[in-house]
Amino acid sequence: MELPLQAVLVLLVVAALAATVLRDVLSAIIVFTIFSLAASVTYVLLSAPDVALTEAAVGAGITSVLFLVTIARTVRPVGDRLLIAVDRPAAVAAVALAGVLAVGVAGLPPAGAADSVVASGPVTSYYLSEAYAETGVKNAVTAVLAAYRGFDTLGEAVVVIAAGVAVLLVLHQEDLV
C-alpha cells in the first residue's frame, strides 16, 4: 500500500470513529461527509472511478443534503456534552470485528498485482483479448463498463439520478411548508 492510500484509510477510520461518538448531530453529519469523501478518494486510488463517482454523489452529496434538511426541520439537542457515552461491550465487539477484517484485508494481494487471481484469471484474459473485437472500443476498461457491465453501470446511473430527484423533491416540499 502506498502512502497516500494509507493516509486516506487512516482518515476513514478516524472519521468513522468520530461520527459514532459525536453527540451533536450537525458535527456528526459533517464528519460523515468527510468519511464519504475519503471513501471516494480511496476508490479512485484503487482504480475504481465509477464507484468513486457514485460514492461522492450519493454518499457525500445527496445523503448529506438529506441529513442537513432533516436536522433543519428538527431541534438540535442542547447540552454541554460533546460526546455520547460509549457502550463498552459494543465497542469491544466492533474492535474485534475490525481486527478480523484487518487480518482478512492483509491477506489480499496488492492492488493491481499482475500475479493475482483476478489479473491472471480466464475472465480477465478474455476481456483483454476480445474487448476490441466484440465492442469496437479501444480502451478495455471502457469496454467492460459500457458493454460487458452495461446494466450494472446503468443501474449505478439510475441510483444517482433517483437520489438526486429525491433530494429535489424533499427540498421542493420544504419550500411548500
Structure description:
- With 177 residues, the protein is mainly α.
- It has 2 domains: 108 residues, Four Helix Bundle (Hemerythrin (Met), subunit A); 64 residues, no CATH class.
- It has 8 helices and no strands.
- Helix 1 packs antiparallel against helix 2, helix 2 runs antiparallel to helix 3 and helix 6 crosses helix 7.
- The longest helix has 27 residues.
- The protein is flat, with a radius of gyration of 21 Å.
- The protein starts with a helix and ends with a helix.
Layout of strands and helices, then pairs:
Elements: H1 3-21, H2 25-45, H3 49-72, H4 88-106, H5 117-120, H6 122-135, H7 140-148, H8 150-176
Helix pairs in contact: 1-2, 2-3, 3-8, 6-7, 7-8
Number of discrete helical segments: 8
What is the count of structural domains?
2
Helical percentage: over 70%
**CA-CA gap between termini:** 51 Å
Rg, nearest Å: 21 Å
Poorly predicted sequence stretches spanning 5 or more consecutive residues: none
CATH topology of the largest domain: Four Helix Bundle (Hemerythrin (Met), subunit A)
- CATH class assignment of the largest domain: Mainly Alpha
What is the second-level CATH architecture of the largest domain? Up-down Bundle
How is the quaternary structure best described? Answer: single chain
Major sheet characteristics: none
Report strand %. under 5%
Query: What's the helix-strand series?
Result: HHHHHHHH
The structural class is: mainly alpha
Mean pLDDT: 81
CATH H level of the largest domain: which superfamily? Answer: NADH-ubiquinone/plastoquinone oxidoreductase chain 6, subunit NuoJ
Q: Which of globular, elongated, flat, extended, rod-shaped describes the shape?
A: flat
> Could you give the count of β-strands?
0
